[in-house]
Amino acid sequence: MSSIGITVSRAEQERLRFIRWVLLLVNAAEASGVGSLQRRQFHSLLFVSFASSRFYGIEPLRQRAQRTEQGPYYRAAHIALGVLTLSGLVDLKDFRPHPSPKDVQFEGTFSATPKGLAVGRRLAETYQGELLYQFLLDLCLGTVSGVLEDKSPADSKASVSLDQVFEEDLTYRQAVARPGNQLFVEESPEDQQTPTLNGLKSIDAFLKQRTHINRKDVLSAYQTLLLRRVA
Amino acid sequence: MTNAVTLAQSEIKTLASKTAEISGTPTARFSQKVVEYFNHWIDANQPSIDKGHVELDRVLILLYSQSPSKDPGIDTESLGEPERVFETSYTLSNGLTVCTENFHVMMSWIPSFKNANAALTFISEKLHVDQTFAVLYMSQQRIWLHQAGEDIEEWISNPNIIKLNRDPNQIVDPTAIIKQLEHFHKRYLEKAGGITARTLWDIHEEPKRSTLRSRPEQQIQSGLLPFLGAEFRHAGAVVDEEIHINGKRVDIRIVRASPGLPQVSTMVELKVLDPSDSQQKNIEWARSGITQADQYKVPDETDAAIACIYDARYDKSDIKTELQGYADEKVVTLLLANMEVPPPRKAKAAARVRAASLPTAPSKKAAAKKAAAKKAASLKKLATKKRA
């Protein structure tokens, strides 16, 4: 395959990486059986993915979410999902605008499409794409095994929704406790050891003393602990 | 009182019983899940099986997909709406169901097949070489497993048959594991046409010799996982998923409970000697397998470390002598096993020479070439016309 000479500006590169992250996350949700995600669930899962990606040696994208009554809201994700939906790579149902004083915000339910899955498979043929998809898939597999299929007795589990679990994320809790409208994961190199990363490392250290586990087992265990905090 | 931003030790301790989920690549995980499902199905339906209620001809096809409902991998135009099936009912035993790798979503698209032949005909006509699927022969306790890359017709005539070992008194120890690794090698890798071997090679036209495709160790690992899973039901085969991308190590750990100990594990490192590498590089690669098998032993847990070195070199010169001493020094069991190199395809040039010596009727090839030239000329004419 011959290479095509195209110059991509740095800002455009950031945007494309964000679109890739969003598409692969939608695909990972489908491939793991999590399935479709409502806007709030998707944005909070996106936050968790940025807070935990360094556990797989992946630098998170530097985007900030806005604090809203409807949970974290990424303007960049909104744009990315729009682009992907219009391209037929993501499916959008129950689309409706949200009354918001500042920005235009929308609700909806997002899920994968066959075309988007095919594009995702191509993206996962590069080194970075493969690593990113593996991480996002493991994160979603962890949502299934750690939350949806969790077998520990929890009386009020039935009423817990996925966004409640994701919003228990340690870094999210820290971000929400900070003043201001912006919710961020990393603003400076000092922030790289996010509370989520520290939590994952503690779980990893604990489990590895006992048995052989993979990183996806740690992501699963972490989400189980978040579920227990909510329930 | 829970700190919102850190995990308490008391919380983390509640995870004490957590063990590894099925591991490997997504399709290798799916294959292991198939084995697990079949075992659970037999457990759940034993009374029916004992009464002879499972027909000899009943088969279930399980097909892997990232999206069983939206992208099942089969032509659904003539099929009705699929039905969602739930794994843990363990009643699914017929037809074709498409599943995510973890069986969390299972969509039954075809409720039943008339018989096994009808199922195989369906596979032959409708499924593709690059799909991952399994055919469960419900009364035989055997699985025909198809991995991506295997030609369908070739696979049907020489399927990867995995038999479930349901012996409740089965012993899982290094001797049994080595025996199964040798068995796997014999059936799957020794001959060029072996079940896994046939997916590892690119065969070229002579005189170019066959070459190995990339990541052969990982392909072998993916073949071994369901094989060992079916043989050792009560042990877990865990792989290190973190390392597969850089390919420096490919391993399988067979973990099981042991009286008096939290657990016991046998460590297996996999290495393939590549014919396109130099002798020196191959020896270093083999040695690294022995080194890694030793390095990843866990004190008080690893009962044996095995280095499986699969020799795919063109010339199988002796390396055992050189490696055995090192393996003994590291207390690693060395399994050095040959892989036959498939012969290259016959050259087309030889066919042309043969054709040239035949009587003079215009060859089909010459006629085709003439027709192609004529078409090219008329297309050029058309293009010129358009531009004008």
Quick recap:
Chain A is α+β, with helices and mostly antiparallel strands and 231 residues long. Chain A has helices at residues 10-32, 39-52, 75-86, 114-123, 127-148, 162-166, 170-177, 195-210, 215-230; strands at 37-38, 65-68, 71-73, 90-98, 105-112, 182-183.
Can you tag this structure with a few keywords?
heterodimer, A: 231 residues, alpha+beta, three-stranded antiparallel beta sheet, 9 helices, 6 strands, globular, B: 388 residues, seven-stranded mixed beta sheet, 10 helices, 36% helix, disordered C terminus
Fraction of residues in β-strands of chain A: 5-15%
H and E order of chain B: HHEEEEHEEHEHEEHEEEHEHEHH
Q: Uncertain regions of chain A: pLDDT < 50 for 5+ in a row?
A: none
Strand order of the largest sheet of chain A: 1-5-4
Rg of chain B (CA only): 26 Å
Percent of residues in β-strands of chain B? 15-25%
Helix percent band of chain B: 25-40%
- Which structural class do the helices and strands of chain A define? alpha+beta
Helix content of chain A: 40-55%
Oligomeric form of this entry? Answer: heterodimer
**Cα end-to-end separation of chain A:** 53 Å
Number of helices of chain B: 10
Shape of chain B: globular
- Low-confidence stretches of chain B are 382-388
Query: Could you give the distance between the termini of chain B?
Result: 83 Å
